[in-house]
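ARCHIVE CARD
Drawer: 12
Card no.: 0347
Subject: one protein chain, sequence and derived structure
Cross-reference: see card 0346
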Amino acid sequence: MSHEPDPAVLYPDVAAHGSLAAALHAAAAGQSLFLPLAVTSSDPLRHATIASVVPHRHSSYVTAWHHERRWTIWGSSNDRLVICGDTEDMRELPEVIRGWAEGAGLDEIDQAAPFDLLTGRFEVPDNNPAAVIASEWQYLLKDSRDTDWPAYRALIEAAYAEPALRRLYPYTSHWTLGFSSTPDYPFSRPFAWIDTPRGAGGYTIRGERHDSDPMEVPTPAEAVSIAAGRIPADLLPASLEDPAQDS
């Protein structure tokens, strides 16, 4: 059984400062930066909260890993994760934290990070539904390309290439792809779930999450075509523009 090491033992340098926030402040001072960080009282050696001047940038923090020396930075915009990356070197974090806190653009923040940072989503300050849907598709495309699972990547790319599905909000559950007319939970009623094959077999299409009579096809293109054909007319509001037309 693996035992979690004492954070003061795994991070003695952080413990010497009294908190992760204080240790990051010290690292930033060495780079002539000031960071708006707050101590998290429940876990001061492994968690620090970031305050941003941009109101829709919230739920932002740095966390330390529990079993090895590494830190992750998380940044959400209107409840959707926009930046997330990890590093073994705390000195790589201050410039990223400063950019996020002071409202720098995502590309500028990414350039300050020597580690992979962007999730693929772009910020939608006004929560416009069409833009949120487009942002989520970009997240799924990046996520699928970063995943060592060619069949899953092929499914996401095939679904994105279908205009009728690209107008809908894509979401996944245990690597099963579903669609909604709205990006807000609870999602609209399911009309098709597509399961990616995990070995032999094809793509499975279900009318409901636990459909007792699923359909299986060999290619993602066939699965996507079937799913598109099942879209109820009322799940394609005429006012919802195809976000790909503006890209």
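Annotation on reverse: Strands lie at 37-39, 47-50, 57-64, 71-77, 80-87, 169-173, 176-180, 193-195, 203-206, 215-217. The chain has two domains: 7-112, 129-241.
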